[in-house]
Amino acid sequence: MKHESKSKATAVILILTLLFCILATGLYLVFFRYDGQFTNGIADGFGIEFSPTERKVYEGQWKDGSRHGKGKTFYGSGNIQYDGDFYNGYKKGQGTLYDTKGNVIYKGGWDLNKYNESGVEYENDGLLRYEGNWKYGLKDGNGRLYHPDGKTIKYEGALHLNYFDGKFFDAKGKDISAEAKRTLIHENHSLTMDELNYGYDSRVLIEDVTKSSAESEEVKSIIENSGITQVYKSHLYSIFNT
Questions:
Q1: How far apart are CA 242 and CA 224, in angstroms?
Q2: pLDDT at residue number 219
Q3: How many Cα atoms occupy the beta-carbon half-sphere of 89 within 13 Å?
Q4: Is 158 a residue whose pLDDT tops 70?
Q5: How far apart are CA 211 and CA 207, in angstroms?
Q6: Farthest-apart Cα atoms in the chain, separation
Q7: What's the half-sphere exposure (Cβ side, CA atoms, 13 Å) at 222?
Q8: Is the pLDDT of residue 144 over 90?
Q9: Which residues have C-beta within 8 Å of that of residue 40, sequence separation ≥ 6?
């Protein structure tokens, strides 16, 4: 009797496993098509991923079913979006990001699909925007920002999670650090919602603080009631010495 029950249980498990495989295969065929090398039925080696509309999405190396190694992703137009390294499905290593017209937007290090370590960011017209260090999508370390001409340095020095602690220069090369710090210029046009949730609000300007900087208590009140994160508050206090 016990043997019979065990056999039935085994049969049920096998049936459920088979149904799961059929369902997974169906979803695979609907949402994803892979043309390439396999190992034990799993994408492994070189392969191409297609969307349900037969648009090429990814071309490159795979490992254990994930993008891994050298690869490229593509826009709907067929133009290359990203060309570089992948690790366990994420952009990680060295890679180049392009806009829809083929212009380089960023070239350098990546981790978890974000700019990381050393890299160079470009404007849409190919001119330099920023070169230096990054930390998961935020400017962190030493770096340089450039004026619209892509040649004249706008900022040079240390950064900490997009907070500037170096020198600012006008278009003629004049040091304007004192004036720039008053408005805490926050050069971040590409923050994602995830990054905003981490507490780095790129939209906060504190011109009101400089207008009343003579009164320490008033400055503190403005900062405390600004709705920004505690990390940012501490940063503002350090700048204004309040």
A1: 12
A2: 54
A3: 4
A4: yes
A5: 7
A6: 92
A7: 20
A8: yes
A9: none
Q: How many CA atoms lie within 13 A of 166 on its CB side?
A: 19
Listed in sequence order, the residues at least 6 apart from 166 whose beta carbon sits closer than 8 Å to its beta carbon are 155, 156, 157, 158, 159, 177
pLDDT tens column, 80-136: 999 999 999 999 999 999 999 999 999 999 999 999 999 999 998 899 999 999 999
Whether 88 contacts 82, CB under 8 Å: no
Which among 228, 190, 185 has a CA at the least distance from the CA of 207?
A: 185
Alpha carbon distance 234, 195 (integer Å): 19
User: Is 178's pLDDT higher than 70?
Assistant: no
d(CA 57, CA 37): 16
Give the length of the chain.
242
CA–CA separation, 50 and 33 (whole Å): 5
Predicted local distance difference test score (pLDDT) of residue 192: 39
Helices (H), the chain: 2-31, 177-183, 193-197, 207-211, 216-224, 230-240
- 226 touches 208 (CB < 8 A): no
Hey, how many other C-beta atoms are within 10 angstroms of the C-beta on 2? 6
Q: Residue 22 contacts by C-beta under 8 Å, 6 or more apart in sequence?
A: none
What pLDDT sits at residue 18? 58
Q: Which residues pair with 126 in a beta bridge?
A: none
pTM: 0.65
